[in-house]
What does this fold into?
Amino acid sequence: DTAVSQTPKYLVTQMGNDKSIKCEQNLGHDTMYWYKQDSKKFLKIMFSYNNKELIINETVPNRFSPKSPDKAHLNLHINSLELGDSAVYFCATSTSGGEETQYFGPGTRLLVL
Amino acid sequence: GEDVEQSLFLSVREGDSSVINCTYTDSSSTYLYWYKQEPGAGLQLLTYIFSNMDMKQDQRLTVLLNKKDKHLSLRIADTQTGDSAIYFCAETPHSSGSARQLTFGSGTQLTVLP
It folds into this structure.
């Protein structure tokens, strides 16, 4: 069983559309994250979330919003997509306490045309 | 804010050792990580080191931490073609919160030549 899964794997869409990317984990972890990897492979945290707090990277536009229907899922909703949103989006999970190793999903490759 | 830097490229011959270097600025870093990303794939955790350690060895991997110089390195012994990938250094600061956010370096593209 895949520990952290994301759907879709690829997403091609037009500018201005609204889209969602889904993340599911079966590790029982209580904290989930979204990262963005740009075309130069640079990785940057967007959000971290557990049932107690949402931490938002201040550089993330408010068009991006995480939504968690339950502890095993953290979806990323994006409104009014822009060309610069094209990137690979990675979900990750971790436990709280200790080394809090983060386990990453396979990524969703988003292309905005 | 935190900053993590790595050289962008490294080429080695198959069978040689590879050393990938990383520097960071956040003196409150508690855990430092090495992740591997193969083409078209996600990030795979290779190893991590707690900031009160100097060295950690795991099979072909050796991590060295110089906390005074804020320098981290990953040595891969007997490098194989399957080791060709991008290697990311990452750190997480001390935090009393329930979630620690990783700060990644730019990644080092390791190319292993036959």
Q: What stands out?
A: The interface with chain B takes residues 30-31, 33, 35, 40-45, 48-50, 52-53, 55, 57, 90, 92, 94, 96, 99-107 of chain A (CB under 8 Å). The longest strand of chain A covers residues 87-94.
